[in-house]
Amino acid sequence: MDENEIAKIVVDSAFKSHSRLGPRLLESVYKAVLCHELSRRALYVKRQIAIPIVYDGLKFDEGFRVDLIVNDKIIVELKCVEQLSFAHKKPLLIYLRLAQMRLGLLINFSQVLLKDGIRRVVNGLDESRASPG
User: Fold this and answer.
1) Domain range holding 23?
2) Rounded distance, CA 4 to CA 10, Å?
3) Is residue 133, in this structure, part of any structural domain at all?
4) Model pLDDT for residues 32-48, shown as the tens digit of each residue
5) Is 70 part of a structural domain of the chain?
6) Residue 130 lies in a domain
7) Which CATH number is 112's domain given?
8) Which of 21, 29, 43, 133 is deepest in the core (most CB within 10 A)?
9) Higher confidence at residue 122 or residue 61?
10) How far is CA 124 from CA 3, 5, 23, 41, 128, in A?
11) pLDDT score recorded for residue 125
């Protein structure tokens, strides 16, 4: 599966989780439920993964920690905030660059309509092939 196919499953799973739980719960609740949904759909999910920084030939794992990595191809960052801003998107782009990955999803579960809280963040991915969502 490519990034866009995986992203479609992630978004579908997020919609299912959000519709069953509703908005504005703790981020940790959505993270657990989304991991469960993705695993049920045969995707491999890693949680709270360190993204290392390499400096002077040394690898430092203390730098960043991402919420989810799905199938070793997509970084998913979950938020429960009033509104997403550039301050939420910028770290995801940094994570993608450091991990040498091409697609990230930023999902804000505080939105009443989840579609208003989903942002794709790309790092060299061909967006002309992207499916909606």
Assistant:
1) 3-124
2) 10
3) no
4) 999 999 999 999 999 99
5) yes
6) no
7) 3.40.1350
8) 43
9) 122
10) 12, 17, 32, 27, 12
11) 61
Query: Can you read off the two tokens belonging to residue 52?
Result: 């290392």
12-17 LR contacts (CB < 8 Å, sep 24+): 12/133, 13/37, 13/38, 13/41, 14/107, 14/109, 14/114, 14/118, 15/114, 17/109
| Residues comprising the chain, all counted | 133
- DSSP at 123: S
Strand partners, 111: none
Q: Tell me the C-alpha distance between 69 and 12, whole Å.
A: 16
Count of domains observed in the chain:
1
Q: Is pLDDT above 70 for 126?
A: no
Beta bridge partners of 60: 53
Domain for residue 91, yes or no? yes
pTM of the predicted model as reported, rounded to 2 decimal places: 0.88
